[in-house]
Amino acid sequence: MPADHLIFASSLIAAVSFLYATAGQAGGTAFLAIMAFAGFAPGEMRPLALLLNVVAAGYATWHLSRRAAIDWAALRLLLPPSLITAFIGGLIALQVHIYFLLTGTLLIAASALLVFKRTADLTTPKPIAAIPAALVGAGAGLLSGLSGVGGGVFLVPPLVALSWKSPKAAATLSPPFILGNSILGLIGALLSGQHLAGDSALYCTAAFGGAVVGTAIGARWMSERATSYVLALILAFAGVRLLLR
Predict the structure, then answer these.
(1) Which alpha helices (H) appear in the chain, and where do they start and end?
(2) By the 8 A CB rule, do 163 and 202 touch?
(3) What distance separates the 2 farthest-apart alpha carbons in the chain?
(4) Would you say 219 and 168 are in contact if contact means Cβ atoms under 8 Å apart?
(5) Which of 222, 183, 192, 210 is closest to 20 using CA atoms?
(6) Residues 6+ away with beta carbon under 8 Å from 114
(7) Per residue in 86-142, pLDDT tens?
(8) Predicted TM-score (pTM) of this structure
(9) Does position 224 have pLDDT exceeding 60, yes or no?
């Protein structure tokens, strides 16, 4: 890739990582949109998006863990089933038009759930039941592996819609969930024959820088309602962008 395109793509990845990190997400949806716009080879897009998710979500998980902000009990119910399905999804390479249609539709639906659940930050969360949590985790993991999206955008809306977590609390579960699913999805994608771009190290550095700044802002200055609306806007934008592809 020419140097100017490389710098442009890296700058966009850093900006996306920053914006998504303020809402507890890694940025896989917009990473994919950037790569499509920049002309990446189709076989490089999903594994690189998953790798960037690992970098961004890895930092956010470390940061939240230091602050004791992660509900590990809830994560133990949600994450293990998702790891299995994320790996299975990573092994499956969807046709391009099916991928964009499926992922774009799901992201717009997830955005609508967050917008219409307006009282989520004012209600007392309900206990998380084991079997429904396993189903939610498995579904989010499968979509993560199939799409190259880390899975956080598929996890948060059900948690909020089912009144298990407020938007802010659900956002703190996203980074470790994204991290685990992206690692397994990446392994599956590489085993399926897809490969990483040659400039992956530069893109990872950009994603890390954006995640550091965005995580700090989201943790300190984002309210419950702001987190919910920022995430809903991100989901809607990414969904429409993918459908237009």
Answers:
(1) 3-22, 28-38, 42-66, 72-91, 96-116, 130-147, 152-161, 167-191, 200-221, 224-244
(2) no
(3) 53
(4) no
(5) 210
(6) 156, 157, 160, 167, 228, 229, 231, 232, 235
(7) 899 888 877 878 877 877 787 787 677 666 655 445 457 788 989 999 999 999 999
(8) 0.78
(9) no
Structure tokens at 229: 């609306």
Q: Supply angle C-alpha 70, 122, 212, rounded to 5.
A: 35
Q: What whole-number distance in Å separates Cα of residue 77 and Cα of residue 49?
A: 26
**219 pLDDT more than 70:** no
Contacts of 73 (CB under 8 A, 6+ apart): none
Residues 13, 18: Cα–Cα separation, whole Å: 9
Which structure tokens are listed for 162? Answer: 């089912």
For the chain, the first-to-last Cα distance in angstroms comes to: 21
- Beta-carbon count within 10 A of 229 CB: 16
- For residue 97, the model assigns a pLDDT of 82
Phi first, then psi, for residue 242 (nearest 5°) are: -70, -40
The helix/strand/coil state of 129 is coil
Question: How far apart are alpha carbons 174 and 61 in whole angstroms?
Answer: 9
Rounded to an integer, what distance in angstroms lies between the CA atom of residue 228 and that of residue 14?
Answer: 22
Nearest to 42 by CA among 98, 95, 108, 110: 95
Task: Give the residue, 195 or 22, on which the prediction is more confident.
Answer: 195
Mean pLDDT for 50-69 is 89
